[in-house]
Design goal:
The chain is mostly helical. Helix content is 75%, strand content 4%. The protein has a two-stranded antiparallel sheet with strand order 1-4.
Length: 305
């Protein structure tokens, strides 16, 4: 592997890692606070992607305006998901039992299957994207042998902003402190005047809204999406959340950078040494090996307590 390939792999791996870190933020929030294993995470992110594509292609709305609509829609979907699917199981102060956690897992799995089949039925399996739309006057930036899409740069800017806002929300606001209190001990939080049920509903709203917003980042990075795109981002988000620690926004962001860098370098090395066609699946396998090692040696995550 030459120097040019090495540099390109690092840069593109880090660019994707920033997106991965932001995409996993919604998952670490709902999993860490509510103990809900949202296996439909990637499908919910694609809901935001498809909404933005539909508003842009069908109505001619600017992707930036569509992004705001996707965020507001995410809040509405979050409310509907909480009251329609989760409240009877997690809407209580008592410590969640293993039976309840498994029930939520099955519910989210059923939701994942339903929404994926809905995508295939109503939207189809053809790639969807924003066409020739790009951020800035040029679609690419050339730095020597390095070519970076301007949309990837926009995705990174929005990803960093999203993670920063979430971090400040949890660290500096009254709502954020209440969320962290419920995450640590819902029963103790209720004794000091915090309503855990209300906080869980608000957490679901924020988590789903952030996840749908991150669908725009996926759309920018991937250029086009298909329903199967969720099958890539859901498992990788789980790897990143476990790596960074449940409920740790910054930990997930750093975990995303690690996975993106490992994936980029692994893919380049495998392509140069073995079969290039096997580079992508084998690089993903390495990411899941990292998950296994983390669970074995540091199950609370690299940045967990």
């Amino acid at each position: 592997m030459g120097l040019a390939t090495f540099v390109i792999s690092i840069v593109h791996g880090l660019l994707w890692g920033v997106v991965l870190g932001a995409v996993s933020a919604g998952l670490t929030l709902i999993w860490g606070v509510m103990k809900v294993v949202n296996v439909a995470h990637g499908e919910v992110a694609l809901l935001g992607s498809y909404l933005i594509v539909g508003l842009y292609c069908a109505l001619g709305l600017s992707p930036y305006i569509a992004l705001i609509i996707a965020l507001a829609s995410g809040l509405a979907v979050g409310i509907a998901m909480y009251w329609g699917m989760l409240h009877k199981l997690v809407g209580k102060v008592e410590v969640m039992t293993l039976r309840v956690e498994m029930s939520t897992l099955l519910i989210m799995f059923a939701f994942s299957v339903a929404i994926t089949n809905s995508y295939y039925y109503f939207i189809g399996s053809e790639p969807k994207g924003l066409g020739l739309w790009h951020f800035g006057p040029k679609s690419n930036i050339n730095i020597g042998y390095l070519v970076i899409r301007t949309n990837s740069i926009l995705a990174c800017i929005l990803a960093v902003a999203l993670v920063a806002v979430l971090h400040l929300l949890l660290a500096k606001t009254t709502l954020g402190k209440a969320i962290r209190a419920v995450m640590q001990d819902a029963q103790a939080a209720s004794l000091v005047g915090i309503n855990p049920v209300k906080i869980k509903m608000q957490t679901t709203m924020i988590s789903i809204a952030v996840t749908m917003l991150s669908g725009f980042l996926i759309l920018l990075h991937e250029t086009s999406i298909i329903p199967g795109t969720a099958a890539l981002y859901t498992p990788l988000s789980f790897v990143i959340v476990v790596l960074g620690g449940l409920g740790n926004i910054m930990g997930s962001f750093v975990g995303g950078l690690i996975i993106g860098l490992v994936y980029g370098l692994s893919k380049a090395v495998i392509a140069s040494v073995f079969n290039p066609l096997a580079s992508a699946p084998l690089a993903l396998s390495i990411a899941f090996i990292i998950l296994v090692l983390t669970l074995l040696f540091k199950p609370e995550g690299l940045f967990g307590r």
